[in-house]
Write a structure and sequence with these properties.
Blueprint: H1 2-6, E1 13-19, H2 29-43, E2 48-54, E3 63-69, E4 86-96, H3 100-114, E5 121-128, E6 138-147, E7 152-158, H4 166-183
Helix pairs in contact: 3-4
């Protein structure tokens, strides 16, 4: 919400935020940053830079994020009605204080599902070591689908008690993203 209000400001917004970067309720920091950057380009191109300094998983948190956002001198009228066709899927699987092999298993399952639908699927893994993360161990997935008209759709999930294996998390997030795509629209359900 702060990002939407900041476009009406008189000077650049600089924030340092502490807490959870990934949990089972809210959108992840990566997804939020990508969606806001895409939406702000539609309304006037305000500069938007969001960086994760430390990863923090719920419930203990310990994450640190910096946000720099400019303001818009002039707001453009926005008409977003053409959702376009999906041209690529990108993703991030982040982990802290767990084996990096778990994230590889999640990525393999996501790719297995998406390879039946689209060839351009790229998923990056980030493993945060001690000192780069808070006190809570965990891993999470952020998927982003980009369309030919610049629409960005996202889905985020963190590994929790619902899933017994990393492959279950990968399959769940992949099918949830497909549901989001098939639902349609120019803004996803998280935003």
């Amino acid at each position: 919400m702060v990002s939407v209000l900041a476009i009406f400001g008189k000077s650049q917004l600089n924030l340092k935020l502490y807490g959870n970067t990934d949990d089972s309720i809210d959108q992840s920091v990566e997804s939020f940053g990508r969606v806001m950057d895409a939406l702000l380009k539609h309304v006037g191109g305000a500069q938007f830079d969001l960086k994760v300094r430390k990863r923090g998983y719920a419930p203990l948190g310990g994450g640190e994020v910096t946000l720099q956002q400019g303001f818009c001198r002039k707001l453009d009228a926005v008409t977003m009605i053409d959702e376009g066709k999906i041209k690529r899927v990108r993703g991030w699987v982040t982990s802290a204080k767990v084996s990096p092999q778990l994230t590889t298993r999640v990525v393999d399952k996501i790719r297995e599902v998406f390879n039946d639908y689209i060839p351009d699927v790229w998923i990056h893994t980030d493993h945060y070591k001690k000192g780069q993360c808070g006190d809570q161990a965990g891993y999470a997935v952020s998927l982003l689908a980009e369309t030919t008209t610049g629409v960005v759709l996202t889905k985020d999930f963190r590994f929790d008690e619902r899933f017994k294996l990393p492959e279950e998390l990968g399959q769940h997030v992949a099918y949830s993203m497909l549901d989001e795509i098939f639902t349609g629209g120019v803004v996803d359900s998280s935003n």
